[in-house]
Design goal:
By secondary structure, the protein is α/β, with parallel strands linked by helices. It has two domains: 228 residues, P-loop containing nucleotide triphosphate hydrolases (Rossmann fold), CATH 3.40.50; 59 residues, Histone, subunit A (Orthogonal Bundle), CATH 1.10.20. The protein has 13 helices and six strands. Strands 3-2-4-1-5-6 form a six-stranded parallel β-sheet, sandwiched between helices. α6 packs across α8. It is globular and about 55 Å long. It starts with a strand and ends with a helix. It comes from Sediminicola luteus.
Amino acid sequence: MADKWLISIVGPTGIGKTSLAIKLAQHFETEIISADSRQFFKEMAIGTAVPSREELETIKHHFIQNISIFDEYSVGDFERDAIALLHELFKKSNIVIMVGGSGLYIDAITKGLDKFPEVDPNIRVQLNKLLKDQGISVLQEKLSVLDPTYFNKVDTENPHRLIRALEICMGTGKPFSSFLHQNKVVRDFKTISIGIDAERHIIYDRINQRVDLMVEAGLVDEVRSLEPQKALNALQTVGYRELFKYFEGDWTLDFAISEIKKNTRRFAKRQLTWFKKNEQTIWVDYLEDIDSIVDKIKQKFKI
């Protein structure tokens, strides 16, 4: 039986992952799984930079705008659904492409999720109330005390991640980080990780330009339409939080846009930190041509 290969395209936001994924999918005559958790939601298109209609028609994509912001959908749900889909896709092709900037979701597929003990569900209720009443800073401070190790590497602007870590800390009396990387999962496919990189100023320039294009494409109207649902976890993300501040009268539009750019740049920095931890990743320049990248893959992995 031929080896099955998952080619995972990673890198900071705005670097060109979708374009490379499509070119690789065309070359290997296969399909694409998205591991970008922001792009799962039907109601969020512009602010999450979902692939264009033309791109989606070029190659079949999975997990793009497949659920609603009102749906409960965890990284565990994604792991279950994506692994099941991979089993089907590998019946048609020995190679499947995965692309996305959500490191936790990528690791869920390639490495499997860490296992955590059951805790009192009322703890999550209490933490959600704390978030609503006092804001995210209270959660950040609490986690920095209970688990400074995890606090220093988690996206501290993501309330869902903070609450998940805190409920384990509070429910077990042990740091969330103590449960990480305890269980090794063996997949029935092999993973090739391709990382796209560029000099920092180029990444930041591309991010700034992308935000400007989003605004031109109607980002403000998209976020305005979602303002009644702004408390939902799905909307606690860069590009949406900042514009909610504008609608509330706290910020000017220009300042909100500048904050989107700043917070997206910070997000890109965290992405690179996460992805650089994988020493097996083959890093390529954002301008490298597809033939060169395919040659590197074939020479290294004999596929």
